[in-house]
Design goal:
Blueprint: E1 2-6, H1 14-27, E2 32-38, E3 57-61, E4 64-67, H2 71-82, E5 90-97, H3 104-107, H4 109-119, E6 124-129, H5 143-159, E7 170-175, E8 185-188, E9 200-205, E10 211-216, H6 229-234, E11 237-243, H7 253-260
Parallel strand pairs: 1-2, 1-5, 2-4, 5-6, 6-7, 8-11
Antiparallel strand pairs: 3-4, 7-11, 9-10
Helix pairs in contact: 1-5, 2-4
Length: 261
């Protein structure tokens, strides 16, 4: 199996090393793992592509490249420049330091890479490690992903649904913020929504008197509705959320036809 991996935390991020190990286990001894990751951290860029300016790409080692672009850029670079006619069988993104559950999914560069891969007709899975007070106690904060990552990916590959429609399925996986030994299992979930919290801004004045705004996230320990991703994670489960890029509100179409046509 040939696997392309990327992330949004950057080429030197510890979570990428975790993903490399997972990918090598899935690919097997005769398989290939190709890394194309951002040269610098690209958290929060979602599905951004560098449409208005070029990006530099540099070979860092055997099957390992860094690109001065977004995670989605890295997927495009991997598919059309580095691998070209050697299309991968799977695209993996992560392992992100921090959860990409609930509304975080919409901001995530980790997920953005999988969106681009799905649009290109590839099977893709995003992997993220929920952080919390208990992960700080671990010798490695990625312990749940290290221990359970390969098994989860293999399970999705073998038993998941892989469509070939225009907006094909991809998967968003989040590992819970508990020791690996306390992970209760896997739950298939919906994308949740954390109520009464959101991103915002925090102003700061520079020594020169200019105002700067820092983007600030809200609390991450707020459970979402039962059956959704963050609720499962905070209860000790690995969440697997099937997703697709079609943003149409299909449940509203019939009603709006009656009202607007």
């Amino acid at each position: 199996m040939r696997i392309l991996i990327t992330n949004d935390d950057g080429i030197n991020a510890p979570g990428l090393k975790v993903l490399e190990a997972i990918a090598h286990e899935i690919a097997g001894e005769s398989g290939e793992v190709w890394t194309v990751a951002p040269a610098f951290e690209q958290s929060g860029v979602a599905h951004k592509i560098s449409y208005t300016h070029p990006m530099m790409i540099a070979k860092m080692g055997e099957r390992r490249y860094a690109a001065e672009g977004s995670p989605a850029d890295c997927v495009l670079a991997g598919l059309f420049e580095i691998l070209q006619d050697q299309r991968p069988d799977l695209v993996l993104s992560g392992v992100n330091r921090g959860n990409n559950a609930a509304e975080n999914t919409l901001y995530s560069g980790t997920v953005g890479a999988c969106i681009e891969a799905a649009l290109q007709g590839m099977r893709s899975i995003a992997l993220s490690q929920y952080m919390g007070p208990r992960t700080l106690e671990m010798s490695d904060q990625f312990e749940p992903a290290i221990t359970h990552g390969a098994a989860v990916v293999r399970n999705i590959l073998e038993n998941g649904i892989w469509t070939e429609d225009d907006y094909r399925l991809f998967y968003n996986v989040n590992f819970p913020p508990v020791p690996a030994s306390e992970v209760k299992g896997t739950r298939v979930t919906t994308q949740g929504f954390r109520r009464h919290t959101s991103f915002g801004v925090e102003p700061h004045m520079s020594p020169s008197g200019r105002k700067f705004l820092w983007i600030k996230g809200g609390p991450q320990d707020i459970p979402t509705l039962p059956g959704s991703d963050a609720a499962a994670n905070l209860d000790g489960y690995i969440s697997v959320t099937p997703a697709r890029c079609d943003m149409t509100a299909h449940d509203m179409i019939a009603t709006l036809k009656d009202r607007l046509e």
